[in-house]
Amino acid sequence: MSGTVRVQPSIQSIKSLPGDFRFMGSPGSDRLQTNEKSRLGSGKTITLSVPENGKLRDGIDEAAESYEGDFDQANDDSPYSGNLASTEERPSIGEEDVDAVALPLPSSSKPPAENRWGDTSSYAGKKKVQSWFQLPNGDWELVKILSTSGSESLISLSEGKVLKVKADCLVQANPEILDGVDDLMQLSYLNEPSVLYNLQYRYNQDMIYTKAGPILVAINPFKKVPLYGNNYVEAYRRKSIESPHVYAITDTAIREMIRDEVNQSIIISGESGAGKTETAKIAMQYLAALGGGSGIEYEILKTNPILEAFGNAKTSRNDNSSRFGKLIEIQFSETGKISGARIQTFLLEKSRVVQCADGERSYHIFYQLCAGAPHALREKLNLRTADEYKYLRQSSCFSIAGVDDAEEFCVVMEALDVVHVSKEDQESVFAMLAAVLWLGNTSFTVIDNENHVEAVEDESLSTVAKLLGCSTGELNLALSTRKMRVGNDTIIQKLTLSQATDTRDALAKSIYASLFDWLVEQINKSLAVGKRRTGRSISILDIYGFESFDRNSFEQFCINYANERLQQHFNRHLFKLEQEEYVQDGIDWARVDFEDNQDCLNLFEKKPLGLLSLLDEESTFPNGTDLTFANKLKQHLHSNSYFRGDRGKAFTVNHYAGEVTYDTTGFLEKNRDLLHLDSIQLLSQCSCPLPQIFASNMLNQSEKPVAGPLFKAGGAESQKLSVATKFKSQLFQLMQRLESTTPHFIRCIKPNSLQSPGVYEQGLVLQQLRCCGVLEVVRISRSGFPTRMSHQKFARRYGFLLLESAASQDPLSVSVAILHQFNILPEMYQVGYTKLFFRTGQIGVLEDTRNRTLHGILRVQSVFRGHRARVYIKELRKGITTLQSFIIGEKVRKEYAVLVRRHRAAVSIQKRVKSKREMNRYQKLCDASVAIQSVVRGWLVRRCSSDIGFLRSGFKGAEPEEVLVKASFLAELQRRVLKAEAALREKEEENDILKQRLQQYESRWFEYEVKMKSMEEVWQKQMRSLQSSLSIARKSLAVDGSSRNSDASVNDDQDPTSLEAGPLTESNGTRPMSAGLSVISRLAEELEQRSQVFGDDAKFLVEVKSGQVDASLNPDRELRRLKQMFEAWKKDYGMRLRETKVILNKLGNDQGGGAAIDKVKKKWWGRRNSSRIN
């Protein structure tokens, strides 16, 4: 298949297969053919001929039965169904959609060229001769069987080479119609070459996801594929796309979490470089898209750059390899929205901090810090380039193709801001990273003959002391000496060069590991759920896959142990528990054998002679070495079939995925992972806060000692738990958490070791498929019942779909009635003691019907509730209106009463005020009248009295009063004069305004008169032109008549023979002439009448405009209307004149008037036209 495989058929050839294709001999073929004929009409059935031995026929029958069963089912409820759609339900797609969706099953519509499938015998003949043959290099190739004789077959390879092989060496191949199916369960022949070819077919089409029963197989494309984005998220959310995808698995987990109220887990596994980290990020993106809204989802996504920078590194197999395991538990609220998250990490590879293999890199963050740190931070931390640090230049690899470390550092800083790590803490984190790098540059010098050393006080040592917040002397003592307690005394021991180097490296590894754990803790605080916790969660496990290198050390030992435990969880969920449940529930089930790894786990975990127990035991001995540990393993475990001792320090373990040989060099040191108490005390005494936190955490971890003898030398009392023991404890906690969830498995596959797109190595892919047990899973899932439900839950969930009431029946009877009502075939389900078991896809029919029914019920309820709410609102509104009317009426009445009282009070006050004012006025008037009367009377008295003395006295007594009266009259006269002057001024101003308006009206009237006169002149001129035209026409007609009479007399004199024809000619000529004159006279009369009418109307409008005549009309509008009437009449009149001209021309031609008449007419019309122009 890698270069010699058959040419892959096009997508069009897959789509064009007839929908009525069926394998013969299967139990369900008759039923399926009947259904096809009822929908598609009569079709042709392809019969596969088989060899005489009948073996192939039996295989075809068995495969076709499951093939048809898979094709006739669709299950939207179970995650195990995936994309199992029938040929009738699967939509057809074109080649342009191959990149976006998975390869579909063939469409049921008839092909346009039906004769292509007419020769079914040749098609069947081609299919029967195709088989798989394994080449000497291990690859499989599709060959044609030319002939078979006994146990040997003659085959033809793709390049034309013919070989004779044993028939047992050939493996049956699937028909081309099954090339590229999206679920391996749909393959008729489930064998290794068929699975490899199907995965390669889809991989070449950029369809990297394939279902294998309940497992999603994801092949790393090593390039960007157009399968992600908001459009795809929305499509999988609405289930408009059902192709295998990480989105589909994640969507199933969300739906089952909400529906079943059970925590879910997505377990992503695979070897390094298979794409586990990217797959986990894709799953988190889908969860964030569906459960977002609170803002916490953005923080969750931003944890990925941080964890990748601090926990991923470039290895020989992967440019972004996760060197730790992580479990991200995402919490959801009751409404299905993300409410928080928590991250748990496992077994960080600390040794990578101090040593790297050639071509590999340390953790990304070191290179990102050296490349992208700002200038101020570089000066503060005394940063250099990456090639100046010993820890980083060991491998001579400082960059990754296509990756900008400086840009990635900016992304990490942004992510730290998002997860609420303060700027001060960020600077402390970068200071610890710089301290680790400068620790690697710290060197030692020998100070005596016993090879004792001390640290060189150079830039490296001083920089580390400055960054940690301690003195160089304290740091020198911690790196070059060790304190030991002997009884009650404390002895200071100087270290050799190797011991000092190990102490330095141990300190660097501990600082980095503690920094990593502290960062994870800060992230968890930022993502904490708090009181929003509901208990519903989806956990995404991204853990290292099975590893087997040329040299396997302690890290691979722990990693493969974790994979054995995960494989057992996988087996337990899919194999053990499933089959045990079948047996316990008493259903008819043929037990399927599978390979269990419990014996291999016992080899690791058994006490006291397990690998982990012997490793911890040897680690506690002061004189224990890697060689003594290897010899102890060979001594105690030589009888175990899963263990084999090799020469020297090596031993081999037979894992589930295959044999792995381990080199025990460094096992004891890495398991102890000792950090001396002096180093911890140094960290606790530093002025920087982070080293103090690291020291406190280290001391807290050492509170639980390991049972057994303790390692006395080297200060092991500071750390009593071995790495293997802690890792085993974390692994057991992880398994307990996973056991309480519903798992969903994603197996990531690495297609080639070159990390190149488009390259597919069969051997590498097959090894990974065997490691993850894909074939066994598909085999059991095809023969099992992946969907199950208790009788009570089934009756409660689907009981309302029954046509008859079943309230009094037990759950089992209700369940059976439901199955009978929906005509589910007996072979598609099993009734157990407590549960119903369904084959793949059967529960989907019931779920669809339930959803449709519930939708209809909700629709009816919504309409009824809406009607009831509207009626209630209407009544409520009516009552409110009535109540408001009463309240408003009462309020208005009260306000009116207040207003009435106020009015009465105002009237009373006004009456009193006016009365008082009038009384005062009347009193003044009376006083004035009395004064006047007194003066007049006094004057009369003085005039009539003869007593002069009395007159004088009276006159002199009245003089002041008279003066007062005259002064008041004078003031009144002055006031009236001023008032008259003000009124006069106002009248003068009004007069000026009126004069201005009059001038404006006069100017406008003058313009209007000029305009009317010009219009009148135009009308008169037009009238005169028409009158002159009519007079000219009359004269011309008179001249024409006289010329005709004279011509007639001349003709009578010259031609005597014309006497008889004379009267007839005269009568015939006179009538048209008289008719023409009458027409012209009528036109003239009409012209005179119309001119008179238009003139009168215009004169009337002028009089109305000037105000001489009163009329209730608008003169301007009437003038415009009169003008329009004149133009219309003028147009009509001109048309009739032209018609008269035509008639006269015709009469002249009929009578043969000759050139004189024509000349006269032309002269008349010329004059008329000239006059019109004038």
Structure description:
This protein is of the alpha+beta class and 1174 residues long. Among the domains are: 130-173, Roll (SH3 type barrels), CATH 2.30.30; 785-840, Alpha-Beta Plaits (2-Layer Sandwich), CATH 3.30.70.1590. The chain is 57% helix and 10% strand. It is built from 34 helices and 24 strands. It has a seven-stranded mixed beta sheet with strand order 6-7-21-8-17-11-12, with helices on both faces. Strand 6 and strand 7 form a beta hairpin. Helix 28 (791-798) crosses helix 29. The chain is elongated. The two termini are 104 Å apart. Residues 1-128, 704-719 and 1048-1069 have low confidence and may be disordered. Residues 126-175 form the Myosin N-terminal SH3-like domain. Residues 61-75 have a biased composition (Acidic residues).
Using the coordinates shown, work out and report the CATH topology of the domain at 785-840.
Answer: Alpha-Beta Plaits
The main sheet comes to:
7 strands, mixed
Distance between the termini: 104 Å
- Estimated radius of gyration: 57 Å
Name the helicity range.
Answer: 55-70%
- Identify the CATH class of the domain at 785-840: Alpha Beta
Any idea what the CATH architecture of the domain at 785-840 is? 2-Layer Sandwich
In terms of DSSP E residues, the strand content is 5-15%
Give the strand order of the largest sheet, numbering strands 1, 2, ... along the chain.
6-7-21-8-17-11-12
The average pLDDT is 78
Strand segment tally: 24
Oligomer: single chain
Query: Shape, please?
Result: elongated
Unreliable stretches (pLDDT < 50, length at least 5) are 1-128, 704-719, 1048-1069
